[in-house]
Write a sequence for this structure.
């Protein structure tokens, strides 16, 4: 069942759970067989009730172990699904940011250029800057000194 | 698909089907034994060997079947993880 134990990896069923299931199932089966064997050897109902109880306890023990086994498996599947969904969500978020940056070409923190004394700021390479000495600053800084965006390069 | 191949791949579902079948047979035999005698002292052994053992086997069969479903889901997650992170990542997450 656990063919590739890896530290930190989510596992469907750990070895301990398999051992517990086998042990509880065998104990339950032994109790049922013992209960049948004991009840068959008693000739009065009063002498059979203890054996009947033992058999019922055996069924309950095995049933509980089986339910725990399934619940552990469901939990492991849920945890792994959640981990994969988190991984997917992270990838989607990164892809979304990259896509947005590709669309407008303005990653956070990018600098823009402006000529001293003029009221517009530009992207690097904007034809409006050709032949002019421009200083670099962030869009916020340009905005603070009253500059607006160039209509040609649209920063 | 050949029967032996199916049995090898779906051993847990095959075991579940066998156990459920045995459980139903046990319940039937227990009922027949109990209904054949009017004495409670003779009915109790049938109640245990037929009824309780039948319920025990039915529960075991259900557990095998649900385990098979969980293993199927786990294999699907292996494939999704392999698609996301490559075969090495899926191998690390598999158990």
């Amino acid at each position: 069942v656990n063919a590739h134990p890896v530290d930190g990896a989510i596992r469907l069923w750990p070895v301990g759970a398999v051992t517990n299931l086998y042990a509880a199932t065998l104990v339950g089966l032994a109790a049922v067989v013992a209960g049948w064997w004991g009840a068959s050897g008693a000739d009065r109902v009063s002498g059979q009730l203890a054996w009947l109880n033992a058999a019922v306890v055996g069924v309950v023990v095995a049933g509980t172990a089986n339910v725990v086994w399934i619940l552990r498996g469901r939990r492991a599947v849920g945890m792994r699904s959640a981990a994969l969904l988190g991984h997917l969500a992270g990838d989607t978020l990164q892809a979304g940011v990259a896509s947005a940056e590709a669309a407008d070409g303005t990653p956070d923190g990018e600098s823009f250029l402006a000529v001293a004394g003029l009221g517009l700021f530009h992207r690097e390479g904007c034809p409006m800057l050709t032949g002019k000495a421009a200083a670099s600053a962030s869009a916020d800084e340009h905005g603070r000194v009253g500059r607006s965006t160039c209509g040609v390069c649209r920063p | 698909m050949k029967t032996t191949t199916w049995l090898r791949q779906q051993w847990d579902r095959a075991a579940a089907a066998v156990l459920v079948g045995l459980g139903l047979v046990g319940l039937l035999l227990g009922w027949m034994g109990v209904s054949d005698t009017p004495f409670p002292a003779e009915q109790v052994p049938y109640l245990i060997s037929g009824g309780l053992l039948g319920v025990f086997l039915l529960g075991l069969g259900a557990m095998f079947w649900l385990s098979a479903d969980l293993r199927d889901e786990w294999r699907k997650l292996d494939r999704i993880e392999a698609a996301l992170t490559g075969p090495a990542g899926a191998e690390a997450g598999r158990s």
